[in-house]
Design a protein that fits this description.
In chain A, 38% of the residues lie in helices and 17% in strands. Chain A has 334 residues and is α/β, with parallel strands linked by helices. In chain A, the strands form three sheets. In chain A, strands 2-8-7-6-5-3-4 form a seven-stranded mixed β-sheet, sandwiched between helices. Chain A has a four-stranded antiparallel β-sheet with strand order 9-10-13-12, with helices on one face. Chains A and B meet through helix 1, helix 2, helix 3, helix 4 and helix 5 of A and helix 1, helix 2, helix 3, helix 4 and helix 5 of B.
């Protein structure tokens, strides 16, 4: 009665594991291994009733309405709320009949694992020209970790092609929030397309577990909702997410701050001999011949960055969140 | 590319829907439609870092250790944490190869829906003697809504029988917390068995979304964890759950209070002409020839109780949580 076993993906963000690996490192650890905004949205007080009662349908609908406005969707009907975009990465493959899936690589490893676990035939391709007759195409835009961004015109063309063969385009926009308004497909959502959005990364509240799928096909939306089941998102996350997504002033201030932080980080990395090869406003991808040794050196200094087993010269750096963190990173890279 | 569609289950707990149905009802609504402890565990202050960082593996392990102690499991290795036991009701059928499933009915409707959605052949049976050669048996113990409890000896015999045919016994113990220590299978967990536990019901924190699966088979545990994926439970829920599950004093005070509340509710229902036909310490099941009319009358008074389409003479009552709620229920039933 066993299902096929697939190797788990290595993730950033696990400071506990880093602490075990570098037991002598100074505390507190600085976690630069994720692409989470270090300047978090200030968590509003959560009413005790939010913890006590089952999440209410009216509150979930209000969240979806605010999310629709924030992301530019036509209506909350197109929006599905989930406990993190990771939950959606796992749910989408379950509601699609087994088929051929092309994933634009290298990218976030959970996509390939999730499609393969459901029995789909998965190939990873470096370019969209190589996807062949795949009925499902999955891409992260802008891409994690490279930051490569594919333009809307090309994606609309691809979506139309997939629609013709009853296929699906899956666009994971987890890192799109600060990349300019024309990056997202949501405002002109094509047929046969599902867009995934992450709440926790842009708002610095990854612990809350909140993400969204946005799709124009009503049947797909219904199947995804059934797959997630009732009360998928916690009531405190609904409350906090609704407040944050409504706050456009906070978003524009955050955007400017992250732009300035990215420029500062690029300079720091270049001064340390790295070539900055890509990224988004939430992380930078940098190349160095001695990347592995530098990651270990940072680890001994209590700074966690993201390595890539298949790309030994790459390191991904999230943004430091305080003067003290900038100083420790600067010292550790000297 | 569509998957088969299955009708959604009607649930208790949706006050928003009740408000739409009875627009003239007085506020605030009293929600007696669920089996959630009305005397909630006092939510401790949640550290801002819990919202900001991805849930940490060390924190999740600590939660599982506390849960193992609380439920009497041999080790945290046997414990899987999920965003609500509902998420586990949906996950277990996905990790089992398509087979014959017998569900002891009537019971919580999501079990049958979840197994059927994954393509299993589901039959509902009234008695364990009728399960035939089913390889998976699902039962809720004590049962929702009837309160029927099956003894450990019978369940161990059933688990042994299912183990012989490479099967699985699924025991949903969502309402077992206040039913005495010998009701749960966890302390002497048989082979080929998975027990589901709900955190939100007993601790009155259903909005948090937290539940557990406990299983002795390491392969099953691993498959369930992979199915739930990384960061399934929010970090605030991990923090609150760990504090609550550790607090044995609170649990014993809650148990005594609920026993006294149940006796009071039974008297009130009997005085109103109901026959109390079952229940647990978290809800009472009552029968009345005019149950539907009484549910409507309560709805007009702003009190939501649980009806059952297939059992028109049944109503399920949760426990009022304050003197004001007891008084409104008493008046509305007169």
């Amino acid at each position: 009665m066993t299902a096929s076993h697939i190797e788990p993906v290595v993730h950033g963000g696990d400071v506990d594991a880093a602490r075990r690996r570098f037991p002598g490192a100074p505390e507190p650890w600085i976690d630069l291994s994720t692409g989470i905004n270090p300047h978090a949205y200030p968590v509003p007080a959560v009413d005790t009733a939010m913890w006590q009662r089952l999440p209410q349908s009216g509150a979930e609908w209000a969240l979806r309405e605010v999310a629709a406005q924030r992301y530019g969707a036509v209506s909350a009907v197109q929006v599905i709320a989930a406990p993190g975009s990771q939950a959606l990465i796992q749910a989408v493959p379950r509601v699609i009949t087994t088929t051929d899936v092309a994933i634009l690589a290298p990218t976030y490893g959970e996509h390939a694992v999730s499609w393969a676990r459901c029995g789909h035939r998965v190939v990873e391709q470096r370019n969209l020209t190589e996807i062949g007759e795949a009925r499902v195409v999955v891409l992260v835009n802008p891409n994690n970790p490279t930051g490569r961004t594919i333009g809307g015109r090309q994606l609309h063309h691809l979506a139309a092609e997939l629609a013709q063969r009853d296929g699906l385009l899956v666009v994971d926009e987890a890192f799109s929030d600060f990349e300019g308004t024309d990056v997202s497909l949501v405002p002109q959502l094509p047929e046969a397309t599902v867009v995934l959005r992450s709440f926790g990364k842009a708002y610095g509240l990854a612990g809350a577990r909140l993400g969204f799928a946005i799709a124009s096909d009503a049947g797909l939306c219904e199947r995804l909702r059934a797959e997630l089941g009732p009360w998928a998102v916690s009531a405190p996350a609904i409350a906090v997410g609704t407040a944050a997504l409504r706050d456009s002033h906070w978003l524009s201030v955050a955007s400017a701050r992250l732009a300035s932080d990215c420029a500062r980080l690029d300079t720091l990395l270049q001064d340390a001999g790295f070539e900055v090869v890509g990224g988004t406003r939430l992380f930078r991808l940098a190349r160095h011949e001695r990347a592995r040794a530098i990651a270990d050196k940072l680890g001994r200094a209590g700074i966690l960055v993201r390595s890539f087993p298949s790309e030994p010269e790459w390191l991904r750096f999230g943004l430091p969140g305080s003067d003290a963190q900038w100083q420790r990173l600067t010292s550790a890279l000297e």
